[in-house]
Design a protein that fits this description.
- By secondary structure, the protein is mainly α.
- It has one domain.
- It is built from five helices and no strands.
- Helix 3 packs antiparallel against helix 5.
- 27% of the residues are buried.
Length: 99
C-alpha cells in the first residue's frame, strides 16, 4: 500500500485524477482502521460487515484510479483487495452463524 501510494504521489502530471486517487486512498485507509472497532470493539458482525463492504468498494475504486495513473501502483493494490475480500467472507460467515 505504501509503495502504491508513493507511486501515485510522485506522478505530478495527473492533477485532478491524482488528487482524487489520493483522497480515495485516505478514505479507504480510514475505513481500514474503522473495521476492527466495528467488528471487535462493538462486537457486531453486522456493523463489521457493513464496514468491510464499504472498505472493499473504496479499495476497488482506488485501484481503478491508481491503474489509470500508474499501472504498477494499481497492481500493488490487488493483493490488498483480495485479502479484504477473504476477510469479508469470514465476516459474513460469522454474521450468518450468529443470526
Amino acid at each position: 500500500m505504501g509503495i502504491a501510494v508513493f507511486l501515485i504521489w510522485r506522478e505530478t502530471r495527473y492533477g485532478k485524477p491524482r488528487q482524487k486517487a489520493l483522497l480515495l486512498f485516505g478514505i479507504q485507509l480510514v475505513l481500514n482502521a474503522l473495521w476492527p472497532f466495528l467488528f471487535f470493539g462493538l462486537r457486531s458482525p453486522l456493523a463489521g460487515l457493513i464496514g468491510i463492504v464499504a472498505l472493499a468498494v473504496s479499495i476497488f475504486m482506488t485501484l481503478r484510479l491508481f491503474l489509470r495513473i500508474s499501472y504498477p501502483a494499481g497492481v500493488l493494490l490487488i493483493p490488498y483487495l483480495l485479502w479484504v475480500g477473504y476477510a469479508a467472507g469470514l465476516n459474513f460467515s460469522i454474521y450468518i452463524l450468529n443470526c
